[in-house]
Amino acid sequence: MIEEKIKRKQAKVGVIGLGYVGLPLLVEIAKSGFKAIGFDVDEKKVAELKRGKSYIIDISSRILKNLITQGDVIVTTDFSLLSRVDVVCICVPTPLSKTKEPDLNFVIDAADRIGQKLRKEHLIILESTTYPGTTREVVLPILEKSKLKAGKDFYLAFSPERVDPGNKRFTLKNTPRIVGGINPRSTKIASLFYSQFVEKVISVSSCEVAEMSKLLENIFRCVNIALVNELMLLCDRMGINIWEVIEAASTKPFGFMPFYPGPGLGGHCIPIDPFYLSWKAREYDFWTEFIELSGKTNENIPYFVVSKLSRILSSKQKSFCGSKILVLGVTYKRDIDDTRGSPALKIINLLLKEKAIVSFFDPYISNLEVNGQKLKSQNLTPELLKEMDCVLIVTDHSCIDYEKVVRYSSLILDTRNVLKNFNDEKIIPI
Ligand SMILES: NC(=O)c1ccc[n+]([C@@H]2O[C@H](COP(=O)([O-])OP(=O)(O)OC[C@H]3O[C@@H](n4cnc5c(N)ncnc54)[C@H](O)[C@@H]3O)[C@@H](O)[C@H]2O)c1
């Protein structure tokens, strides 16, 4: 019985997709005592991981290497090894197509590969963020091509990953886990599996509830960030400091939760998830106008940053053309090494189009390619800062020496309010 195997940690676990979600999951599963196999289609990535080299800062290479050496973890591109596992977690990307529609090709491919090796008592869990209905309407029929019956011969569930890269306080282990199966037995077995390595597991009544709950979490952030971003635009016009407004409102001990403006949204989740839901909603003749509006509002913010920068330069009798701009921080949020969807990319692209001379500094990123142009992270020296017409803070990494930045720069546009404690006229908050 699969339950016994899970309880005794004798079940072998496969993780498909060794990215920012799959790799930490693989390591946590193996650390808890299961033998685990990680699958990925990216040969280069797998070759590095096999040598015990982690590319994610939250995952220590030493731990990964130990797990591989001890034989607790195998990393491979050979999907025939799926025949050795009892549980499979799918952690492949769920991007948008060019027309902003869900692209489930990676999920379909993973399900196809599992389907070829599916056995009785297998437990399959989808973790990739997606619209409600994906597990039952897309994954289930592919797996049932094996002639095995879902919920009876094998078990199928959805459990959203809630990893917050760079967050030291909340990890995979102490972040509660939501699990919803295609039937009660699938929910029960999947919940039992997660309870082996996650402190708190919340079982919900269906995979659709689990899928929608993940979208609610991310859309909640997207909408609230859009709201403060819109207020930021108004405050800019009215000459009011939005940061002070939020600080003041945050003193209310109930009914208010602060969200902050910034240079625009980035990453793999918040900017994408609203479009997954809007797309599915249309099947039900439903227009998620409020949610779509928040997506659009946030997408426009990098344009505002660039226009504010232009205004600041004009006030110094300068224009973009020929001005030297240093972008400080290019990852989509602080203290991580991930530039996917980062607003810095859009901002740099816009600045280059305006013929500004753009350079960047990021302690986590050495090279960047924007629209075919290759940029290298500079050394953050007093000379570099003195040379700049403006420093644009896009990511507020905590290891940056902001005192040095303030001392040697002549003009700073701070999109993160990281310089709030410096009282200097050359600092312009967004
Ligand atoms: N990154 C986050 O913070 C985060 C948080 C919660 C949820 N999610 C969701 O988790 C999912 C994965 O995100 P991620 O950030 O880990 O993506 P990622 O791009 O970092 O990693 C995905 C990995 O899957 C591999 N892959 C692609 N197709 C494959 C296939 N057919 N078989 C095997 N491997 C395949 C890729 O090579 C890559 O290594 C997405 O749905 C995302 O929305 C991400």
Low-confidence blocks of residues: none
> What is the N-to-C order of secondary-structure elements (H for helix, E for strand)?
HEHEHHEEHEHEEHEHHHHEHEEEHEHEE
Bound molecules: nicotinamide-adenine-dinucleotide
| Total helical elements | 14
Please characterize this protein's 3D structure.
- This protein is α/β, with parallel strands linked by helices and 430 residues long.
- It folds into two domains: 2-205, NAD(P)-binding Rossmann-like Domain (Rossmann fold), CATH 3.40.50.720; 233-429, Rossmann fold.
- The protein is 40% helix and 14% strand.
- The protein is built from 14 helices and 15 strands.
- The chain has helices at residues 2-7, 22-31, 43-50, 61-69, 105-117, 134-144, 184-194, 207-238, 242-249, 273-283, 289-315, 343-353, 382-387, 402-408; strands at 12-16, 35-39, 73-76, 87-90, 123-126, 155-158, 177-181, 201-203, 324-328, 357-361, 367-370, 373-376, 390-393, 412-414, 427-429.
- The strands form three sheets. An eight-stranded mixed β-sheet has the order 3-2-1-4-5-6-7-8, sandwiched between helices.
- α6 links the parallel β5 (123-126) and β6.
- α5 packs parallel to α6, α8 runs parallel beside α11 (289-315) and α11 (289-315) crosses α12 (343-353).
- The chain is globular.
- The mean pLDDT is 96.
- Bound molecules: nicotinamide-adenine-dinucleotide.
- The site of nicotinamide-adenine-dinucleotide (NAD) has 26 residues, from α5.
What is the fold's blueprint, element by element?
Elements: H1 2-7, E1 12-16, H2 22-31, E2 35-39, H3 43-50, H4 61-69, E3 73-76, E4 87-90, H5 105-117, E5 123-126, H6 134-144, E6 155-158, E7 177-181, H7 184-194, E8 201-203, H8 207-238, H9 242-249, H10 273-283, H11 289-315, E9 324-328, H12 343-353, E10 357-361, E11 367-370, E12 373-376, H13 382-387, E13 390-393, H14 402-408, E14 412-414, E15 427-429
Nicotinamide-adenine-dinucleotide binds at residues 16-22, 39-42, 45, 91-94, 106, 109-110, 128-129, 161, 163, 165, 268-269.
